[in-house]
Write a structure and sequence with these properties.
Largest interface: A-B, 125 and 125 residues
Shape of chain A: elongated
Helix content of chain A: 55-70%
Strand content of chain A: under 5%
Radius of gyration of chain A: 30 Å
Largest sheet of chain A: 2 strands, antiparallel
Oligomer: homotetramer
Structural class of chain A: mainly alpha
Order of helices and strands of chain A: HHHHHHEEHEHEHHEHHEHHHHHHH
Chain lengths: 456, 456, 456, 456
């Protein structure tokens, strides 16, 4: 029996049905139904025998889903209705009792919270794998100099290990965001009913405990309207993807003939349909290319929620489209980043040659003057003058004669030439978090501790 | 002396200069310079006398900024250069020593982290003020029924207090996000230099302690490239604004003649230039309207960072445009939301009439059958049939005769009419987080505890 | 033979391959290959016999694609390679000649331009169908009054026909945008090679003519880098979707019990899993919900192109994800909008009652005073005073006595009561484009002309 | 007299008032008021004497605005009310007649349409200036080879002129978009009143003619709700900014020591606060950085309009924030792009050295085999094998001996070495739109015609 007199229009069904994507919530829906049925029996709302029939049917549904033989039907609107329909096929009329004290509104919010929590943590594990690879590569390239850039201009040399570890700390913050997300998805919506709570003396805390939720949502209206945890996951994913886009962009750059700092393995590159010589860093380009998609999912979800009256509105169905693609895209990017980083080759001689550019020592020369008592702003001006002189004359800094130096400052003596001897420029960066080797070793130890921390 | 031979083009200066907006970082820049100078002296990099001269000049700069008489110059490119220039005017050549062991790159990251931390916490306080207003209004309208809606269709009645508290919990999550942001901005970038660390034995932890940072950034390359805390603030702000947009949209709806549930005070409404009868809920409309702007700031910042090679690039200058407007817009919205909610009038009779719509009790009738042993899915069908019969005959549910009821189910007896007697529909929602009054009172107590928790 | 020594990593393949979505370009790829082969033969680059073998294989490929029996292989990276591979299987070694004087770069740009042009025009046809439905409904409800709203407050009454035609003109502008898009996709990229042009004396204009392009791209570097026509399609789609979101939001509102202006047919609504009385306007909600997704595709594509060096980069592969989903989503929304509008029922009595609200005549009363010589700003104040008096006394405007009127203005005589008699408020809006019936009839005639214009 | 009993709250005023930004509409508001007053008199709605008083006061207002001495007041809510207030101060009570047959709703839509049209065309002129600079630079660097890149890997050489002209055609499309926008803003909203038309026999076509609009809006409800032309301007601006971001990104790349292809003039670069040697391409970085802001304005405006019921809602006030900043930002970027391009220096020797990389001729070698009858796909494999052999042996292609060549294909004879002789690789790209000099000269002539076309 239905309130409706006419069937749905096929175009409307296509627009309305979510089964084509929300089948992914199946395992979570089975788990929550199991916990719900157990609670209903424990509270005396259904009998123990009814519970057992429901649990048994749910077990079969789970097997069918697992094994890819769940009998979907063309008119299944969503996964929740499909599973309830199947339970009733398997268990008979008692199947109709499963939806007692429950609404699709709290049901879908619960499935989605479970999905978000599980995937936030699963993605965090993938992030950890990339972090571990970065630490390995940093150790393998501990003392290889590379130019550090600002404005894509050579600025000061650093060790490649130090540069790679910069990404480690970005990813560590991504893990913090993912864990924050998991905590935001840790309040059980189930038991909120359609919006007002339910007409039965349920035990929400028992359900929460069985499903691994830390607490229950305090307000039923909010519980069925709330998609904050989706925004949190999308925000965390977008930031992580933006980090990977920076990594990808750098590797594209380093793979150019002009930089020549690194080469992807053949396993992460591809060729050209027309130019036989090409080896393209496609994996790195795609890491760069995917970030806008993740940010777009986030802004789309804000758009969906914008100005939406409470409580549940059909608009919320859009949440899944965005969260599923976001999770899949990011996970694939993380796996590709890990594989790409494991296999990448760095070219020591090209890196060393670039990092030996004497202009990179200009700050060190200025600081030499500072140690002689010249205020930094003045010493900066002196060295800027020397740089311009060298550029005008087409020579390097160390090719400037003592006489020329004397024109710029009395404080410039032999140590000027000593400072320009390579190597010291890196080891002199002794401040905490700096690129001097002892500092990088400290940092590596800190990174190892972060990776090994079971509480992290 | 400069490396450059020609002056900057005026068009380029206009594009390049950030002083027109980054003057807001002034107080943070002074504070960090003070801490930096003190540390330089403590480490023997400058003398105590030099430090005192610098601190004295910085004190004067602070007064000038406070009192709006800081002498900005047309060629001040940014606030950092303006302050250093002014310190040198006030203190003489020693002013040139202030930038020892520091770069604009770590300096601007530090100012911005300080700004983000301070504003995240300041905005959280404004959120708290709105939460307190919601609790007050919930207490004042504890037992006023209002229809709860799904799909903007009347679904089940709730108490107005319960509905208002839904926003309380949204805002509580906003505070969690803002505090997470503050924690993300709690690692001191200063001391990272241009990108590689600095050539001096500095004490970054002393600077962190003086400025109230919890720790120091572990990697200098990351420290000057990192704007994650900006993304975190923008994400938190966008979510909060999206919450306010839902509140605004509901109040616009409730202010319509058709709903007639509430009326804004004259202090938060405005009239029409042409239609003398109009009273428009502008404050609520603007709460709705601002959310896309906040989400846009977030997606723009992701765009700025997209594919950006390490470390500092001029692109990062865009961060301030977005974060300043985001903070200002959200703070204004929060203040307006608080004021609007304090003054709003609810119309008890209109709310009561709407909440008394008998169709709102359909679930309760279905649950009555459930208690008689009918599986929920079957009872849902029975009641759907009754609803259709009532609609077809143009009567209310309680006007259906016992004979008609019997056509649909044997289990429908006199209690059917009892259930339809108003009031019970709310009080029967006894589940935790539900709308029954004892549950709302529990929730109010929980909300009060949240507000009073000093650790929160 | 390959430049590469190792196979691709499976994770990379998954990230890199586009065949899972770009198979949709198949028909366009076959068509362009056919035109390309014909041109190669006409120019003497391949022989006529070779052309015939290629054309014959392409014909078979087309049949296989049409009939869903094209033999895709796991290692097909994209549709272009899959088709070339299949042509070679069917035709033998001559298949290897198909890619003469062509690169995947100009090939994919050509396929995509063909797709965009075809879909821009196809979507425009769907827009036309909705426009025709709106005209039909406007004619069917020509003189039904409905309140016009500003700020969701009743403002002035209009005819429902006039309100519905507002959407007609929005959609007419959408058609203009879609046609602009088609024009932007009308320059043939093929023949630009990888980026520099090709080493053969090709005839690009012949290819353009065969494929229906209006001109050839003037610069090969731009031709393979250009995705402006994708941005144009996404912008047009986003604006159209935003229009539909406004329509959807209004119908959600009108479907509420409080407004009660309209009811969707059962074919475009759905029920509740728990509340048997519910009839939810899902179709309208989903029209509202989809707009942010379209806008997100647009912003994502801007993100992909942001800062991307010329010419082709793998990032461009993301274009298809966005354009395919945008087209599918919008087309489905347009079809649903048409169906929903065809079947919708308006409730004349509810509309009439709302539109008879006397306050809606306030402007008319003010204009009465204007015609008596009172400056509008002053007359606006007089009527505002009357409104406040009526509200304070809890009466309607027409219940105010002549004595009360006299307190506010001498110019208020018997005609005040005449103006308040319903109906005149609509017919007095005689300005061009206004709601007076003769004006609406003019507008309907104009709309009919727009629909019938073959050039439009 | 007012409908309201209480003054507005200061927080609400701050949120509500738009005068802080909409003062920019002042000149348009004066112009439309002038046209409106003239029409009112011509239609006999006000007297000629009243018109003259109004026009005289408007003239004075215009002077005050021009000269920066318009007396704004703290309680001016928006520019429309400020101007009407001032007109009344200057002209007396007749000022109150200016708003006859007009509403702020059609008034603001008209001002904004005028602003959008004027700025779309003004920005198009700035685009033209950049296009002219590109043509000049292309002519100045007609035959300078530069490597063309795909995937940022050297692919095939092109002439610098050809590469620069790619941007010319992007910008030409931007002009088309801006002109489309101007056409979309060419329908006069004024005369639509609040939403329903007005109670007077106005002559909208006369007003349109005086203000330079091509037609009048056909539907009053749509006219006051419509902000499509704002979306069109923002879409056009975002695409243009995205083009400039690609230009900026390339120049950043080319300015690196590693590429070394170009150098910005000192007038468009800046130094470092700490590193004296640095010359940073800030102008180019900022061109790159601004695009996400423009795209964000577009997505924000879509957000504002999302789900907004007709007709005017206060939300629309947000339109100006976005459109003003978009116009200002883009215009500044265009001016900076022009200046930067006028002054940029290209380094011929670095370009030539990079473009002489023999691997860039791999396609030409493959095409040599094609001309010998080898199918392209096979010849591509042959050359890929040669490339791998050369890489493995650490030699260039031309250092491979005839004996080695013979191992790969019989068709490889002496012409192999001839093809590898530089120069031919560019001149062989003879297809229309290709980089061969005669083709580039054709293209330059076409570009000149586009620039000189007065109709364009």
């Amino acid at each position: 029996m239905s309130r409706f007199g006419e069937p749905q229009d096929p175009v409307f069904q296509k627009l309305n049905a979510s089964i084509s994507f929300d089948w992914r919530l199946g395992p979570y829906d089975v788990a929550q139904s199991r916990a719900h049925a157990s609670m209903l029996a424990a509270q005396g709302i259904i009998s123990d025998a009814e519970r057992d029939e429901l649990l048994s049917a749910l077990e079969e549904v789970e097997r069918e889903l697992d094994e890819g033989r769940f009998p979907f039907r063309p008119d299944d609107e969503d996964i929740h209705m499909a599973i309830e329909r199947r339970v009733t096929e398997l268990a008979g009329a008692v199947g109709g009792k499963l939806h007692t004290a429950r609404s699709r509104n709290d049901q879908v919010a619960t499935d989605l919270a479970m999905f978000v929590r599980a995937h936030a943590l699963g993605t965090a594990d993938r992030v950890t794998a990339v972090m571990a690879t970065l630490v390995d590569q940093a150790e393998a390239h501990l003392d290889w100099p590379i130019p550090g850039y600002t404005h894509l201009q050579r600025a000061q040399p650093v060790y490649l290990s130090h540069h790679l570890l910069a990404y480690f700390w970005m990813l560590e913050r991504d893990r913090e965001r993912l864990r924050f997300t998991a905590a935001q998805a840790d309040r059980l919506p189930l038991g909120s009913g359609a919006l007002a709570g339910v007409n039965f003396a349920t035990d929400r805390r028992a359900v929460a405990a069985e499903l691994g939720f830390g607490s229950v949502s305090p307000n039923s209206v909010d519980a069925v309207s709330n998609r904050d945890f989706v925004l949190d996951l999308l925000a965390a994913a977008a930031t992580c993807a933006t980090h990977l886009s920076r990594l990808g962009a750098e590797i594209v750059l380093w793979s150019s003939e002009e930089f020549g700092f690194s080469e992807l393995s053949d396993a992460f590159a591809s060729g050209s349909s027309i130019m036989p010589q090409k080896k393209n860093p496609d994996a790195a380009e795609l890491l760069r290319a995917k970030a806008p998609r993740l940010a777009a999912h986030l802004v789309a979800m804000h758009g969906v929620l914008h100005g939406l009256p409470l409580t549940y509105n059909k608009d919320l169905q859009e949440d899944k489209v965005h969260v599923f693609d976001a999770v899949d895209t990011l996970d694939l990017c993380l796996d590709a980043a890990r594989g790409m980083l494991e296999d990448i080759t760095f070219r020591r001689s090209r890196l060393a040659a670039a990092a030996a550019d004497e202009f990179l020592a200009a700050t060190d020369v200025a600081d030499l003057l500072v140690r002689r008592g010249v205020p930094f702003r003045e010493s900066h001006g002196v060295v800027a003058g020397l740089v311009r002189r060298a550029l005008d004359e087409g020579v390097t800094l160390s090719e400037l004669s003592p006489e020329v130096l004397a024109e710029y400052s009395e404080a410039l003596d032999e140590e000027f030439y000593a400072v320009l001897a390579e190597g010291a420029w890196l080891e002199s960066k002794v401040s905490e978090g700096g690129t001097a080797l002892p500092r990088v070793r400290e940092q590596l130890a800190q990174a190892r501790r972060v990776l090994e921390d079971p509480a992290a």
